[in-house]
Amino acid sequence: MAGAIIENMSTKKLCIVGGILLVFQVVAFLVGGLIAPSPTTAVPYMSVKCIDVRKNHHKTKWLMPWGPNHCEKLKDFDEAVSRQIEANDIVFAVHIPLPSKEMSPWFQFMLFIMQLDIAFKMDNDLKENAEITLDVSLAYRDDMFDDWEEIAHAIEIRKLKCTFGSPKTLESEGRHYDCDFLPFMEIGSVAHKYYLINIRLPVNERKGINVGIGEIKDIRLVGIHQNGGFTKVWFAMKTFLTPSILIIMVWYWRRITLMTRAPVLLEKVIFALGISMTFINIPVEWFSIGFDWTWMLLFGDIRQGIFYAMLLSFWIIFCGEHMMDQNERNRLSGYWKQVGPIAVGSFCLFIFDMCERGVQLKNPFYSIWTTEVGTELAMAFIIVAGICLCLYFLFLCFMVFQVFRNISGKQSSLPAMSKARRLHYEGLIFRFKFLMLITLACAAMTVIFFIVSQVTEGHWKWGDITIQVNSAFFTGIYGMWNLYVFALMFLYAPSHKNYGEDQSNGDLGVNSGEELQLTTTITHVDGPTEVYKLARKEAQE
User: Fold this and answer.
1) CATH number of the domain enclosing 285
2) pLDDT for the residue 319
3) CA 307 centroid distance within chain
4) Same structural domain for residues 366 and 408?
5) Residues 181 and 265 reside in one and the same domain
């Protein structure tokens, strides 16, 4: 009777905790949907054609498209021809942001893509597989009257992928090609108020530089940055969730250290998962408001990679610890086949990220996708990572199937137990199935909300209420995985309650007063627990 009362109390506590976590999950989605603005903003920029006829001009002068010291402008290239101005003396200038606005550190990053307006002309046609060479420079200043300070200068090559929907005849001259957007620049911080981009298209017919690229009319840029309002909401969430996970981690590890045995593998993995979640949560981004930390995007990718690698490893070990025999359990080396693909895939993605964002720390105009070798290398890393991910999920699905099959077999041994202990084991099985369903629900919600955020317009409008779908996706999914880790440590922390019934369970050989935990994989210094013996007996059968 005492065991049944304790088990009923435990189930009630589980339902209460589940309800509280559900409330927090709904709040996480609502914070992004109702309070935060859209995560990012896209701003179009039209370059201004400036004239610079001095020798070695790009080393000594920055050309402003507007303002008190603006450059001498060209209306179009017909004017340049009439004035006998060469292509090498034309500079495309873009000022960031637009007039009467300022950039802010709350914007976090800037991503730019380029679109070229190329007109068809019979005597200057766009060649197949043409490449355009860009001489680009980036500068900053924090006052409208300060001198510009250079951030980066590079000569970049981009492949043109354009189509022409009309016959190439005299009647079609002047019509524009339909060209793909080109990756242009990415900066991991917005530490200054004003930025200036100068773009030159150097022409050298002898070397074949910028020959056969058609008649370029204009250069357009689209700048994408994070919204300041969303950044503040995001920082607030990270600041709130960091102590929450830290507190449950301390409580969880304290419960483990109070035991008379050493921590087992599953407990260590859950604790490591908590550490990786805390690593993501720690709001170091607050420092990016005052410091020019251009490496924050790369650092964020590394933090997420560590967490997802630990999460995938946990799922494998969690399933394995419920199905392996005594010789293979509680040893990380027993999972090398399943964990190996995770390590290889994570390493490939890390190398890819270093080749892209790592190089951009020195050259923000660099893109690994702009050369054939870079594209093949990037695709190789991504394909290997994809193969590893497929192998992982095959292993995981097979192990989940085996675990549920073993659990079904174990349930046949329950009638031989006393009522109190039968209820206890039924609770353990319920918790395992509950966690598996929660895991599937979290993964499904992540995929569903990602798809919805991609196919919708970014917000839903219900009467006077506007819901930002993309913001709700980010805050909701981020909060969901925090709650998932929180629930793991709460449910699988060792219990210190004793069941004092002096009853036997047939072949299981259970002693009275043995300590029991929520997890089914705990092994005492005096021997395996009852659930472990039950699992081992089923595995041997």
Assistant:
1) 1.20.1070
2) 81
3) 10
4) yes
5) no
Give me the average pLDDT of each 10-residue run along the chain (541 residues).
Answer: 52 72 88 88 93 61 86 83 84 93 94 92 85 94 90 92 86 88 93 94 88 89 94 94 93 89 87 94 92 92 92 86 59 81 90 91 91 86 88 84 77 74 70 77 75 59 70 89 90 64 37 37 37 38 39
Q: What is the Cβ-side half-sphere exposure of residue 35, based on CA atoms within 13 angstroms?
A: 16
- Indicate the residue among 203, 226, 249 that finishes a domain: 226
Residue 524's nearest CA partner among 511, 506, 505 is 511
pLDDT value at residue 452: 66
Residue carrying the six token digits 């779908």: 469
- Token pair recorded at residue 321: 């610890």
Q: List b or e across 8-35, with b for residues whose CB sees 16 or more CB atoms inside 10 angstroms.
A: eebeeebeeeeeebeebbeebbebbbeb
- What are 129's two structure tokens? 């597989």
Enter the DSSP assignment of 442.
H
Which among 57, 158, 219 has a CA at the least distance from the CA of 367? 158
CA gap 532, 212 in Å, rounded: 73
Q: Do 246 and 380 fall into the same domain?
A: yes
| Cα 411 → chain centroid | 41
User: Residue 534: helix, strand or coil by DSSP?
Assistant: helix
Helices (H) and strands (E) in the chain, counts: 11, 15
**pLDDT the model gives residue 56:** 53
The count of other CB atoms within 10 Å of the CB of residue 398 is 12
The model scores a pTM over 0.70: yes
| Assigned domain for 293 exists | yes
From residue 250, alpha-carbon distances to 209, 259, 490, 500 in Å are 62, 15, 11, 29
Q: What is the pLDDT of residue 67?
A: 82
Rounded to an integer, what distance in angstroms lies between the CA atom of residue 309 and that of residue 268?
15
Phi and psi torsions of 71, nearest 5°: -80, 170
Same domain, 470 and 368: yes
In a domain, 516, yes or no: no
SS3 507: helix
Residues 6+ apart with CB under 8 A from 325: 536, 539, 540
Structural domain boundaries, residue 270: 5-39+229-492
Beta strands in 405-525 (DSSP E): 459-462, 465-468, 523-524
Examine residue 255 and state whether it is found in any structural domain, yes or no: yes
Residues 309 and 372 reside in one and the same domain:
yes
Collapsed DSSP state (helix, strand, coil) of residue 78: helix
Same domain, 370 and 483: yes
At 224 the pLDDT is: 94
The answer to whether 230 touches 37, Cβ cutoff 8 Å, is: yes
Domain co-membership, 179 together with 291: no
